[in-house]
Every structure is written in C-alpha cells, then in structure tokens.
Amino acid sequence: MQNFWRLVPTAVSVLVTLLYPLAIWLGHGHAEPRLLALLLVLAAATRLPTLKINRASRWWLAGALLLAGIAIWNNALLPLKLYPVLVNLGMLALFSYSLYVPPSIIERMARLSDPALPAYAVAYTRRVTQVWCGFFVLNGGLALATALWASAALWSLYNGVVAYVLMGCLFAGEYLVRILVRRRHSRLDAQASLRQDGQHV
Predict the structure, then answer these.
(1) Furthest CA-CA distance within the chain
(2) What is the C-alpha separation between 54 and 52, in angstroms, rounded?
(3) What pTM did the predictor assign?
C-alpha cells in the first residue's frame, strides 16, 4: 500500500500530461488563456513531491510556472501551447546528460530487471538512449512548429495523439530490435562455448 501511494503523484502527472493538449483545445475559444493556464499550474503541482530528490523536476517546475505566468500576464495561448516543447526539452536534457555522466538512462532502467548487464547490453542501451535523444529533438521541433504555425486543433492532434503514437512505435521497434540483439549474442556465445569445448577435447 505504501508503494501504491508513492506512485500516485507520478500517475497523476502522466495523466495530466496526456490530457493537457485535449483540455487546451476544448477550452480554446470558450475560456480565456489565463484561466486555461491553471491547467499548466496543475501539471506543475503534480511534480511537487519529487522536488527534493530530483533536480530535473525543479527545472521543469520553474519552466512550467514561467510559461503559466506569461500566459496569465499576457492572457495569451501561445505559452500554454509551448508546454509540450518544454517536456521534450526536459527529457532531452535528462537523456543527454546521462550519456555524458554514465550510466545512461536506458541502462539504469535495464539494470532494474538485470543488474549484471553484459558489455554488449551496456553498449546497446547507450545507443538506445541516443535514439531517444534524437526522438526528443524531432518531437520537440514538431511540437514547436505546431505551436507557432498550426491551428489549436492540429496542435492538439499532434501533441495529444500523434506524438504518443510515434512514441509507441519507437517502443515497439526498440523491443523487436532488442530481441534480435539478444538472440544474436546468445548464438555467438553458444558458438564460442562449442569452440572452447572442442579445444578441450
């Protein structure tokens, strides 16, 4: 039960992030941007429990509150539409930093299920982290383009649907590649073991 309550803030944060583009689109034209900015304040508030242990959350909170403050001050919608860009920038910074200060984010996640990762797996997780960095650059760029030049409906469609479909495709593709990489190295290990056995005979 204790672990459940620890996961609640994260679950709420994910839910707010997923529904945010849809909420902004539905509210556009029916509520003033300064009122819609409360959604961004709510999204920022979901990160409060992690502030003491996560420096990235502190920077993310500051950025989200800055966008909300600009939206409230100017009663403008654009700062609210830039929130997905902020999310991608935050993820890009987190993943990129882990490449310069190993272990990489993907390696840390992999070690949760397999603490004794072989050398090839460490190299593979580093490459996957690089791929995700590329994804955040591309996705963040498209999020910025839709915020600046697209309609609210198209912005909501991309950032609330298409971006997550692309993310799901990347997850699925990486999973298939991971299976192939494991099979290849298992086959190579088996062949090496047979050769060693043959030398001992």
Answers:
(1) 81
(2) 6
(3) 0.85
